[in-house]
Amino acid sequence: xxxxxxxxxLVSVFVSVNGQVPIAQDAFDGITANVWLDTDGNSxxxxxxxxxxxxxxxxxxxxxxxxxxxxxLYSSDDLYNWKNEGYAMRVVSTREMLDTDPYFKNLYGNLTxxxxxxxxxxxxxxxxxxxxxxxxxxxTGKYIIWFHADDSNYGAAAAGVAIxxxxxxxxxxxxxxxxxxxxxxxxxxxxxxxxxxxxxxxxMNLFKDDDGTAxxxxxxxxxxxxxxxxxxxxxxxxxxxxxxxxxAKNGVDFIRLFPGAQREAPAMFKYNGKYYLITxxxxxxxxxxARYWMADEIFGQWKDMGDPCVSEPDIPYPAHxxxxxxxxxxxxxxxxxxxxxxxxDRWNSGNLKDSRYVWLPVFISPTGEISLHSVxxxxxxxxxxxxxxxxxxxxxxxx
Length: 399
Ligand code: DGJ
Fold this sequence. Notes:
By secondary structure, the chain is mainly β. The chain is built from six helices and 23 strands. The chain has one domain: Glycosyl hydrolase domain, family 43 (Tachylectin-2, Chain A).
């Protein structure tokens, strides 16, 4: 066989239905954010997502924006090349399918009619399913997804939960509900404190602390106030229920933060005993200024640290607009040694499925402040050169 014929055959074997040839990656685009293809050659659909290591692989969960609102999952050995693991949780097109489709019958077949109605209400295909985040419960062995579960007009403002025995699913939708709020007498008279905004849960994320306690972080009160609530030991519900109001105590079971600050897209991480919370502003799909807070305790005092994005001459995307991204997650690569990646979405509001992923190294100063910079075409070895603050201290001390 001639070499050119062999090449053509090989290329056609690897060309996906989209006609793109997947090329093995060994770097992150960073700020330039070209289309990121999976190992089949299709554009990765994991927007508003989260990446973490579970077992011996990295897992990327996120929103599908290509035709339906099923939740997508990808796996990787190296963080550059991602294999599509299929839909983790599927939405349902008709109520009838819960009774007739084998996939849904398997998950929901033993529910009562009313319970199935509630499932349909939560994950029918015109619902908003955004910012899914995955958490593994080592004690129960289960995998749990929390997500922003909403109506198409964002009026439900609820958090959804789904559970599975395997990381790849199928995930069974459990419930969607609003979350914590203060007792009535503790609210003031700001417009966003009105009764109809209390308990809202929209943009959200999860955080698992070193002792296994997990938290949900969410934009509430019409996206003007951030809440953090402790989850139960199974990670399937709040630790202390939202009703009756007052049972869960502010500062003990949840914390109400930054009232009126109008923050979205929370992403929390922990480094050197401090908690960090990066957030965006709230301007729909349009980029805005990032801002982060630091605390010694999750239910303690959070200090406003300002915008972590640093402007430099001639950078293509403005730092004061988070380099045209919105935070979605901080990826812990090697937390003990200060190695974290900022994951941002560069939304394309006119064609959401073509929204891009901007991954940037998180710089940490010796005194613990973080910064983000306009970095392109970088790989994991870069993290060795910028931070490792504790590692550097150790080296200094050992001298
Ligand atoms: C901003 C949020 O961060 C996104 O997740 C999405 O809900 C858009 N708003 C919708 O406009």
